[in-house]
Amino acid sequence: MLSRLSRSAAKKAASKTISPATFSAGARRNIVQPSGAERASVMDLPSTYKDESHFTPRSDMLGFKLEVPRREENLKEKTRPIYLDMQATTPVDPRVLDAMLPYLTDQYGNPHSRTHAYGWEAEQGVEDARKHVADLIGADPKDIVFTSGATETNNMAIKGVARFHKEKKKHIITTQTEHKCVLDSCRKLGEEGFDITYLPVQNNGVVDLNVLEAAIRPDTSLVSIMTVNNETGVIQPIKEIGALLRKHRGIYFHTDAAQAAGKIPVDVNEMNVDLMSISGHKLYGPKGIGAAYVRRRPRVRLEPIINGGGQERGLRSGTLPTALVVGLGEAARIARKEMARDRSHVEALSKRLIEGINSQVEYVVRNGDVEGYPGCVNLSFSYVEGESLLMALKDIALSSGSACTSASLEPSYVLRALGAAEDMAHSSLRFGLGRFTTEAEVDFVVQHIVGTVHRLREMSPLWEMVQEGIDINSIDWSQSQH
Amino acid sequence: MSAVPSRRAVLGLYSSTLRTAKSFSSYNFRNYFVRRTRDVFRNIQTEQDPSRVQSMYQEAVKDLAVLRRSAIVNQLYGGWRLAVEDPAKPVLQRGDD
């Protein structure tokens, strides 16, 4: 080893005398190969470029202007839309922010520093947070790994387990209604040579256990099924699925509980879950933090995506963001404490919303299982396009589906997987209710939705035909016969 | 620890918690904490077991300290009016007109 070192040092010294032009031609490959200037790409700015302050409205902003309000201006002048998109993200609870602030000011230590008080107090905060997150899902604190969010956790769990067992097992099962990050991770693994089974769901969005059992193969390494769907609020029978998978040896069970943790009771041991994803900003915590539950007994082995200093059991290296971790912990603690109160509040609001809309508008279809999470109400308004409804409702922040796909006008793939017709998938709206939603807000939404739906239907020729009793589906829209 | 809190102490804590909850600038937080405060203190009122009452009281004291700080931060950074708070303003209005 020593002789090799000295030889390479000598070579390095010799190469210094050679000019850079001749160096690249005959030199042997070193560990770090310098790249020439011809390989660096420097682009000229296009002539249309304007400085950063210039903002062009994009087509997907539905005609809204971006007006960033300035705090110095009078707060009373502009009103903000009311927020009913709790599946996209939730506001940070003021109590969570209060727990985070000390770690954003004086207690700035690195939680991995073992040699001084700054490190110890940060570590104490992180470990308390770990305990709170573990308590929320009935796990052991040592099983919790902090990540940057549910997307990273899903990637880590799916790719990590699949790649670790790729020598023997090459089959993964998931469902068609999963979140994009699960589907995309599976697609990537598909490119790497894995077999992926995308299970269909029933019309109410729930996976059929018989279909799942039939899909299991001897070389299945992982099953990934989300607990609560982000678009429809459908709750999958995770407990039954866990019991089913426990009968088959060597299959790991991952569930994406980003929308479930803190909202419905979740227990990893009762559900026989091996891996679970949790996101901070879906349970009134900060964005940019999430947690993975990785079972230690029996041990789940996975290949980490991020390598480095070996923090978080070597599964997710990198310094923990203490303030965010503490925020997630406090959010989990509050969620556990307030779950019953939140649940009854959200249930009452959900009932009020659905009954309010149903009593005044006809041809409204609720997508997904009626027994799903009440805080996520996905309604389709027939003969009204969802996007035009959103455009008309400037004072209500709603979404027609997942935030990840809200820019595209494609109908939601989740609703299509539920068997919704294309027109119904196009006319859907998702109402996300949460801890901070008030009854007055729900009444406001009902009043304006009803008014807007009636107004848009008055304009619609389809609606006129329906009123005259013409079956829309019987019409041949093509012009070819003429 | 101290004995079971007197009725007067509980009422005093209730009124100062409620006053703090009402001082939030943000509509949603204000409404939530007012609702929660009423709920929590109603539970204390109906609780029969003295040791439970004492622990609930202690917890409410701690919550009040957190709530006071949170309200100050919220007064600094929150406070835009929501559409629902302003019924006089016409709704159905596009941003580009």
Write up this protein.
- Chain A: Its cofactor is pyridoxal 5'-phosphate.
- Chain A: It is an enzyme of class 2 (transferase).
- Chain A: Belongs to the class-V pyridoxal-phosphate-dependent aminotransferase family. NifS/IscS subfamily.
- Chain A: Keywords: Iron, Iron-sulfur, Metal-binding, Pyridoxal phosphate, Transferase.
- Chain A: GO terms for molecular function: cysteine desulfurase activity.
- Chain B: This is Complex 1 LYR protein domain-containing protein.
- With 482 residues, chain A is of the alpha/beta class.
- Chain A has 15 helices and 13 strands.
- A seven-stranded mixed beta sheet of chain A has the order 3-9-8-7-6-4-5, with helices on both faces.
- In chain A, β4 (171-175), α6 and β5 (195-199) form a beta-alpha-beta unit.
- The longest helix of chain A is centred in the last third of the chain and has 39 residues, at 322-360.
- The radius of gyration of chain A is 27 Å and the shape is globular.
- By secondary structure, chain B is mainly alpha-helical.
- Chain B is 66% helix and 2% strand.
- Chain B contains three helices and one strand, in the order αααβ.
- In chain B, α1 runs parallel beside α3 (50-77).
- Mean pLDDT of chain B is 86; it is low at 90-97.
- The chains are: A alpha/beta (482), B mainly alpha (97).
- At the A-B interface, β1, β2, α3, α10 and α14 of A face α2, α3 and β1 of B.
- β1 of chain A pairs parallel with β1 (81-82) of chain B.
Task: Summarize it.
By secondary structure, chain A is an alpha/beta fold. Chain A has helices at 2-15, 20-26, 94-104, 117-137, 150-164, 180-191, 209-215, 238-246, 268-271, 322-360, 386-392, 413-417, 422-426, 439-459, 461-467; strands spanning 79-80, 82-83, 144-147, 171-175, 195-199, 220-224, 252-256, 275-279, 290-294, 364-366, 376-381, 396-397, 428-432. Chain B has 97 residues and is mostly helical.
